[in-house]
Write a structure and sequence with these properties.
Glutaredoxin; alpha+beta; 4 strands
Amino acid sequence: MVTIYGVYRSRALRNIWLLEEMGQPFRHVPVIQNTRAGAATMMHSRSPEFLKVNPNGGIPAMEDDGLVLSESLAINLYLARKYGEPVGPTDLAESARVAMWTLFAATEIEPRSIQILYHRVQKPPAERDEAKVTEAVEALRAPFAALDAALADGHLVGGRFTVADINVAECVRYAMPVADLFDKAPRVKAWLAVCHARPAWKKVFARREEEPAL
């Protein structure tokens, strides 16, 4: 059975979302980021126990029949290939498109969107830097426009909801505090709403909200 290490308020959420979409049983081991308050009350990402799983000390991590992976997007690509349709790719061409959009999310979206999340939501008010938000927003306008054009049929790969949608949506989600980005990319806005209307997403996000924010 697949084991996912990480709390819901981490990138482990995207792995758990995928597993829920596929209806696959899994074991969940909560591991909190060592930088967060209360990390000492449970296994954290720098604890000796977890470092035996992932020596890099990052969450999430996954174990599956002796295979250990870290990096949330790579874990999702593996799980989608393992379990296949309908969320996974059906052939080599779809596999390539899933990889393309996943790399797009990792390189073009997340490095910028995470700055919006940090400086609009997560950091204490005294540590927020609105200039970093402005810089991130301007850098995201072109990738959002490209994504908007790609969503003409409603999804990114195969005209259906796939792991590509999960991987990209989870990186796009961090930019939600800036409504203007989405207003100027209406297909992106509608697509993200569709992704977040899915029962599996609602289930995992409700669990995320049950966890303490700090």
